[in-house]
Amino acid sequence: MIQLTKINAIKKNENVIFLADKISEIKEISNDQVKYFKKNFKKEKIQYLKSEIYTYVVNISKQSAQDIRVHAFNIHQNLKKEEIVTICGNNKKEILAFLDGFLLSNYQFLKYFKDKKEKKNKLQKVQILGNISKKDLEELQNLVKAVFWARDMVNEPVSYLDAIKIAEEIKAKGKEGNYTVKVFEQTKIESLKMGGLLAVNQGSETPATFTIMEYKPKNAVNKKPYVLVGKGIVYDTGGLSLKPTANSMDFMKCDMGGAACMAGAIHAIALNNLPVHVIGLIPATDNRPGKNAYAPGDVVTMFDGTTVEVLNTDAEGRMVLADAIAYANKYKPELIIDAATLTGAAVRAVGVKTAVFMGNAKEKYFTQLEKAGQEMHDRVVRFPFWDEWKEEIKSDIADIKNLGGPNAGMITAGKFLEHFTDNPYIHIDLSSAYLHATENYKGKGGTGAGVRLLYRFFESIEVK
């Protein structure tokens, strides 16, 4: 993890990135470099002008925060083999946006490479000269640290990160972030009669876990907690409704992207001491066709007593989430938010450029989430949530079924989950949690999608 340090002056022979609109704004360069920049400068265009070891970013204030993050990624590609880089600027928002993109670009998942030392980026320290506080830098560094943890979890294979291990990882992070973590093991889950989680787990050799995270600062602004529920399917074969391997099952280690999102968000909130009471619920298991695997046609009795007709064992995420959402009711929450890599329908609707969300909560929460998503470029697009879609999940032999019709699958999945709570509710379908090709600072593989979104949401939230 790159360390951020404030400095008061630039030393000679340092790699320096200047964030400025005009050459005259930069006081730290020589007359010869000024001449070079003036000769090569083209107005109204973003440029990377290089002279010796200096890089000058032109017209920075004319760029959006997202543009600046992408420029930071491009510059990082040229400087990742350097040990120390200095960033110089006068505008706090511009510096933070640049650092956001620059730090996120430095992520690597090298654990399983034999030559990991040779592959590792050399960058160890980024120095900042400019109008920014140490507190601002520490906050950003903690947020990036949480995103990296979420990415690591998504990138880990199930041979390492099974349901037991993900609970252990969260427990260890709880000690670092000073929040409480309680883990329910198989016998406790059975005593609670969490039928959805237990049904999905029937085909597995590894017991399920149910992890409860709680961060409750003394200065919390909310009287009732926000409950964050994350889908923790650590690997998904589809169960007896088996997925094809190519372009489907081969990357299903990422199916716990919702769990990584919620655990990462709470970790960032706790590290930065945000004054908000949040609880995280992570139901975890793999979904396999072995042992006494649950089958299409089964009827499962859920934690809240609802009976569910199983039409497809590959619609397992909603089964484990439903038990967790029903369990969340005991906290009498202000709001329940779940996040999950839930449906192919969401990917077909919006691709991997955004997540979709929907629900029945107060309008202010949707507005704030959308705003947070735009600010962090961790975006969400709202879908309708009318009760007409409840008709799609009616069953002939049980209370509801776990599959809707052939269309609007992301919405019928959301309506299935809504059934399990009478509290205000928002569902996020994370179609952007895993990328098959590098996309600037988001990288390739696990993206940590949703962590920055939810952190900004809770950072800016107004409880009324």
Key attributes of the depicted protein:
20 strands, nine-stranded mixed sheet, Aminopeptidase, Leucine Aminopeptidase, subunit E, domain 1, alpha/beta, 35% helix, elongated, 464 residues
In summary, what is this structure?
With 464 residues, the protein is of the alpha/beta class. Helix content is 35%, strand content 20%.
What best-fitting shape do the alpha-carbon axes yield? elongated
Measured by DSSP, the beta-strand proportion falls in: 15-25%
> How much is the average pLDDT?
93
Binned, the helix content reads: 25-40%
User: Given the helix and strand composition, which structural class is it?
Assistant: alpha/beta
Task: Domain count, please report it.
Answer: 2
- The beta-strand count equals 20
What is the alpha-carbon Rg in Å? 24 Å
Regarding CATH, which class of the largest domain? Alpha Beta
- CATH architecture level-2 label of the largest domain: 3-Layer(aba) Sandwich
Tell me the name of the CATH homologous superfamily of the largest domain.
Answer: Zn peptidases
Please report the number of helical segments.
Answer: 14
| Main sheet properties | 9 strands, mixed
Give the uncertain stretches in residue-range form: none
Task: Output the CATH topology of the largest domain.
Answer: Aminopeptidase
Euclidean distance between termini CA atoms: 38 Å
